[in-house]
Design a protein that fits this description.
single chain, eight-stranded antiparallel beta sheet, two-stranded antiparallel sheet
Length: 113
C-alpha cells in the first residue's frame, strides 16, 4: 500500500498538488560459513500523503531468511522464507484498516556458467 500512495495527488478544491512523503530501506546481513551463506533481511516502507484534504498513511514491513548453499561448482540451492506485514491503512477521521500479513516460502535453484 505505501507504494500505491507514493504518487503526487491533485486537490481539486484548491488546485494544489500534494507531494507524498515516502521512505524505504532494506537491510541484508550475511556471513559465509563454508558452502553456506545465510542472509537475514529486513525492509520497511512508509508513505504519508494527502488526498482531498484528508491525510493518508501506510507502512509495510518485511523480514526474511535466504540461505544460498553451494552444492557444486556453478550450482547453488537457495531456500528462502519471507514474512510480510502490510500494516494498516490510516485515513484521517476513519478507523485504521488492516491490510494483512502473509508469508512466501520457496527454493531457488541457481546455475551459474
Amino acid at each position: 500500500m505505501p507504494a500505491l500512495l507514493s504518487n503526487a495527488t491533485l486537490d481539486t478544491t484548491t488546485n494544489k498538488i500534494n507531494n507524498a512523503e515516502t521512505y524505504s530501506f532494506w537491510l541484508d546481513a550475511s556471513y559465509r560459513f563454508g558452502p553456506i551463506t545465510p542472509h537475514l533481511i529486513y525492509g520497511q516502507m512508509k508513505t504519508k500523503n494527502e488526498f482531498q484534504g484528508a491525510e493518508i498513511d501506510a507502512k509495510s514491513r518485511m523480514w526474511g531468511v535466504s540461505v544460498p548453499i553451494d552444492l557444486a561448482k556453478g550450482f547453488k540451492i537457495r531456500p528462502e522464507f519471507m514474512w510480510y506485514d502490510d500494516g494498516d491503512l490510516c485515513i484521517q477521521g476513519a478507523e485504521p484498516f488492516g491490510l494483512g500479513k502473509y508469508a512466501i516460502y520457496g527454493v531457488q535453484f541457481q546455475v551459474t556458467f
